[in-house]
């Protein structure tokens, strides 16, 4: 039909060009025109805490610096223990429930992993 290859993920024939990428409208898979699969080229983002420890989903961390909460006069104090963190994409790369404050986004540079020695 259009001379473009079928989607390598779902085999849809309705692919289209978007700049240097080919896109499948049915499954939203994107890959480069030269045939290399973009999902194979993506790197896994490594999130590190304030001292260099690698963070993972479900870790327990402590707050390393007093953090003012935007739009409030409240402060999350140093040493507050936050359990069961979840890593997310974005500026605030940790989602967690902070005791006494509820759910909020945290930056990894302001937390320390509990029970870990700095990894280099």
TrEMBL record:
Native organism taxonomy: Bacteria, Pseudomonadati, Pseudomonadota, Gammaproteobacteria, Alteromonadales
Keyword Metal-binding: no
Domain Protein YjdM N-terminal: 4-32
GO molecular function ontology, one term from the record: hydrolase activity
Keywords, in A-Z order: Hydrolase
UniProt-recorded name of the protein: Phosphonoacetate hydrolase
PANTHER family per the UniProt record, alphabetical: PROTEIN YJDM, PROTEIN YJDM-RELATED
InterPro entries: YjdM, YjdM_C, YjdM_N
Species this chain originates from: Ferrimonas marina
SUPFAM superfamilies: Prokaryotic SH3-related domain, Zinc beta-ribbon
Protein YjdM C-terminal domain mapped to chain residues: 47-114
């Amino acid at each position: 039909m259009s001379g473009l290859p079928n989607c390598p993920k779902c085999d849809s024939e309705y692919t289209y060009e978007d700049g240097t990428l080919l896109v499948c409208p049915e499954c939203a898979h994107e890959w480069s025109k030269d045939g290399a699969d973009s999902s194979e080229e993506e790197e896994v983002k490594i999130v590190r805490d304030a001292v260099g420890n690698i963070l993972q989903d479900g870790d327990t961390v402590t707050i390393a610096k007093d953090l003012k909460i935007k739009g409030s006069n409240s402060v999350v104090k140093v040493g507050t223990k936050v359990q069961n963190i979840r890593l997310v994409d974005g500026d605030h790369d940790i989602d967690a429930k902070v005791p006494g404050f509820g759910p909020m986004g945290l930056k990894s540079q302001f937390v320390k992993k509990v029970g870990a020695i700095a990894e280099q």
